Each structure stands twice: as C-alpha cells, then as structure tokens.
Amino acid sequence: MTRVTERVSRRNEIAAQVEQIERDLGGIRHAMRKPLEAEVSKGELTMPQKAVMQVVVRNPGTSLKDIGREVSLAHSTVSGIVDRLQKREMIERRADETDGRVVRIYPTAEVQAFVRDLIPALTRGPLERALERTTESERDAIGQALRRLRELFEDE
To answer: Do 35 and 57 have their domain in common?
Structure first.
C-alpha cells in the first residue's frame, strides 16, 4: 500500500468509528433522558419550560434577559414561558429590591425540589441501572474511555 492509500484507509476507518460513536452516544443520551421526558410530560411541561426552571433554580432572582441568554431563547419567548410557569404557580416574579423597574424570577419550593432532587435522580437512574449490570473491570474501562474522550475534546 502506498502512503496515500494508507492515509485514506485510516481516515475511512476513523470516519466509520466516528459514526458508530455518534450513534452510541445518541442512544445513551436518549436512554438517559427518557425517564425525565416522561416525568416532564406527565406534568404537561415542555423541555424549554424545564430548561427555564433549571436556570431559575440555579440562579434564584435572575432576570428574563439572563434566562434568555442561558437557554438561548428570545426575550419574548422566555417571557411567555415565565408567564405560563407563573400561572401554574411554579415560579414567582418579584420586583428588584433596589430597582423596582427590574423584575426578578424565583422558583417555588416545589420547583426547587423537582429540579434539585427529581431531575438528577431521573437522569442518573438509567445509567446506574446499566452500570449495576457490569463488572467492576467493565465499569473501570467505561470510565477510563469516557475520561480520555473528554480529555481529547478539552485539548482542542
């Protein structure tokens, strides 16, 4: 084989591996999100509403502008989401203590519990159940491979 043929062959092998990794990661993401998406839909929430609630729990007293930046949605879209969540008594709007023209968004206790406790349990559950079916050496190998892949991304 010539050097050019070897390089082309290697690129094709890597391309095939990339496609397989993309499929595998997509399947893993889907499996991990499935319980959360089911719970969110039971509460008749959309994923953008869930994303807004997560931002508000992480940053109580945040502004609509900051929420929009965090979730990459337009101000008008975020305002509509906040309106709907407020009507359902999931978040509260309060005037800023120092500047009454500014409105701050706060989560209710129920939403705080949902975002802080239930969401992580729902997303970790499928991964925990999958890892329970592995041996210690398999878990170590999975962890090492994922850490190395993350490192490769961080090095770019």
So the answer is: no
Q: Are residues 39 and 65 in the same domain?
A: no
Whether the pTM exceeds 0.70: the reply is no
Which of 68, 89, 107 is the endpoint of a domain? 107
Query: What is the DSSP secondary structure assignment for residue 56, as one 8-state letter?
Result: H
Largest CA distance in the chain: 74
- Give DSSP secondary structure letters for 74-131: -HHHHHHHHHHHHHTTSEEEEE-SS-TTSEEEEE-HHHHHIIIIIHHHHHHHHHHHHH
Amino acid found at 37: E
| pLDDT, one tens digit for every residue, the chain (156 residues) | 688 888 888 898 999 999 999 999 999 989 988 888 887 778 788 889 989 999 999 999 999 999 999 999 999 999 999 999 999 999 999 998 888 888 899 999 988 888 888 888 888 899 999 999 999 999 999 999 999 999 999 987
For residue 59, the domain's CATH number is 1.10.10.10
Total structural domains in the chain?
Answer: 2
135: domain range?
Answer: 1-44+109-156
CA-to-CA separations, 45 to 29, 40, 42, 102, 104, in angstroms, rounded: 20, 5, 8, 27, 22
Residues 87 and 120 in one domain: no
